[in-house]
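Design a sequence for this backbone.
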């Protein structure tokens, strides 16, 4: 069984690398790999704080110079941050990860170990879309999207105290909430390009909090968990 996880940069490196999270996450994954010798994981890592900080610096400098801010340039900065974060997770996984970090999920991918790392590919979408492509290629029935939120809400709970958590939602309703346009650094549970693709291939996406290791273990072992499932 291959489990595809979109590993949000916001939990790997909210500002800088979060060593405590990486230790706890790696211990869980190693435990699951040792328990089930047939199990494999694909982690697609986001850019997190480094992506947002470097992109903001780019925008500030270009604006100060009265020069245009180019979305592709901002995207490439974010992509490079995802590759740095993915290389860190690959190194942490040690011998379980034998293959190079995947940077083009649009071609057949070699997966010889137990863990495979992937990162940003090209401008126009986030690493969520890469996760969808890899799930399709390796015939996974879902993508687990780990971020710094436990569930998708009806509205931003930081701004609206009446916002309600959602346990299950269709792609149609989710896409209506999140919009259809991508912009570099956009912070949503699943980006619009990935959402369209997942909807097209009827792929389920489960959104949950990555740093809640006990809840994540429940999800990965088939027990009841806190999260939001997006379905066709």
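Sequence:
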């Amino acid at each position: 069984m291959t489990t595809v996880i979109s590993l949000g940069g916001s939990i790997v490196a909210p500002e800088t690398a979060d060593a405590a999270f990486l230790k706890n996450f790696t211990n869980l994954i190693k435990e699951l790999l040792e328990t089930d010798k047939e199990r494999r994981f694909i982690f697609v890592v986001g850019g997190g704080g480094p992506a947002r900080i470097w992109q903001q610096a780019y925008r500030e400098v270009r604006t100060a110079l009265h020069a245009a801010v180019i979305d592709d340039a901002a995207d490439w900065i974010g992509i490079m941050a995802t590759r740095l974060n993915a290389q860190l997770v690959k190194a942490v996984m040690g011998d379980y990860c034998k293959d190079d970090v995947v940077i083009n999920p649009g071609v057949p991918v070699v997966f010889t170990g137990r863990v495979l790392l992937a990162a940003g590919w090209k401008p126009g979408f986030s690493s969520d879309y890469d996760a969808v492509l890899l799930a399709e290629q390796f015939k996974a029935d879902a993508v687990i999207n780990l971020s710094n939120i436990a569930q998708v809400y009806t509205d931003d709970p930081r701004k609206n105290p009446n916002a309600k958590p959602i346990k299950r939602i269709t792609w149609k309703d989710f896409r209506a909430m999140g919009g259809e346009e991508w912009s570099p650094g956009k912070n949503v549970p699943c980006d619009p390009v990935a959402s369209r693709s997942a909807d097209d291939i009827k792929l389920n996406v489960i959104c949950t909090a990555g740093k809640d290791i006990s809840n994540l273990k429940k999800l990965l072992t088939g027990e009841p968990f806190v999260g939001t499932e997006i379905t066709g």
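The chain has a mean pLDDT of 90.
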